[in-house]
Amino acid sequence: MLTGVKRRQTLKLFGATVAAAALFVGISGRSFAQDEKKMVTVVKIAGIPWFHALENGLKKAGADFGLDASTVGPAHLDAAQQVKLLEDLIAQKVDVIGLVPIDVKMAEPVLRRAQAAGIIVITHEGPEQEGRTWNVEMIDSVKFGEVQMEKLAKEMGEEGEYAVYVGSLTTPLHNIWADAAIAYQKANYPKMKLVADRFPGADEIDTAYKRTLEVIEVYPNLKGILAFGSNGPIGAGNAVTDRDQIGKVIVVGPFIPSQGKKLMKSGAITRGFLWNPIDSGYAMVALGKTMAGGTEIKDGIDLPGMGPCQVDMSGRVIRANKQIDLNPQSIDEWAEII
């Protein structure tokens, strides 16, 4: 549970204004006039709570750093539509493109065209995405998968059947998390059994809900669901509630606290880990500001919204450790923030 001191520090972190403002200067010496500066981030699905929070972070940083920052995204999980939106942004000659990729292979060619046009490309949740300038991550991806499996296993008594959900089979980080979680289960909990290969659909509540009804029906001995995708635990928790399976089927996974508070209070969602998407959006813009100021990107760099970071120069990944533990004791306080 957050202590009083930590609570004040957390609220200060999310509410503080970074006073400095900076002109954006692109790669290869490209400079932006005051009326030209624009950053648009293409998210996986427009309008869902996770990406609404990320947009809040982007806009906050945009105001702090003098940049017009916004998001666009497909109405549903649609990689082809996401590519089309990227192409539109290149045609508009925006200064910076942000991206939370659905399909890294589909996005790669259009991102390379963006870079060829002199556009900075900053991705989030895309460590495997080619064609970007930098990728920003707020957690250690392997540990993120492992800790959620650890909590699922504990609640399941370290035995029984479980299922894993991801947003889609091409979503990079979701599948990295799933790989880490499954490997951790096999190494540490031999009495647990994955019922089938991972299921897609954890980015949309209705899809996750219907998937859970199907999984409960097909696998009557199911004891747990590990859902990677912020709407996965919500949809699964609703289905577990409607099928009177609370306490019988354990649901663990990342979710927006204000969105899932009621489900956690009821026991339909047992545990969750995530990072603050407001920080993610802020950090994407702050990275551009740092590049603009000519600051060298190196290990240990302190970026607004991220704090001290690990930098993988060869992989072009900047990573912080901002993992949040959602449990019945902490959910109320986090729900006030996110």
Describe what this molecule looks like in 3D.
- There is one protein chain.
- The protein has 338 residues and is of the alpha/beta class.
- It has 2 domains: 4-138 and 275-323, Response regulator (Rossmann fold); 141-274, Response regulator (Rossmann fold).
- The protein starts with a helix and ends with a helix.
- The longest helix is centred in the first third of the chain and has 17 residues, at 49-65.
- Helix 2 packs parallel to helix 10 (277-292).
- The chain has helices spanning 4-15, 49-65, 79-92, 104-116, 141-155, 172-188, 205-218, 232-242, 257-266, 277-292, 331-335; strands at residues 38-42, 68-72, 96-99, 120-124, 134-137, 160-166, 192-194, 199-200, 222-227, 250-252, 272-274, 302-303, 307-308, 310-312, 317-319, 324-326.
- Strands 2-1-3-4-5-15-14 form a 7-stranded mixed beta sheet, with helices on both faces. Strands 6, 7, 8, 9 and 10 form a 5-stranded parallel beta sheet that branches.
Summarize the structure.
This protein has 338 residues and is α/β, with parallel strands linked by helices. It has 11 helices and 16 strands. It has a 7-stranded mixed β-sheet, sandwiched between helices. Strands 6, 7, 8, 9 and 10 form a 5-stranded parallel β-sheet that branches. A two-stranded antiparallel sheet has the order 11-16.
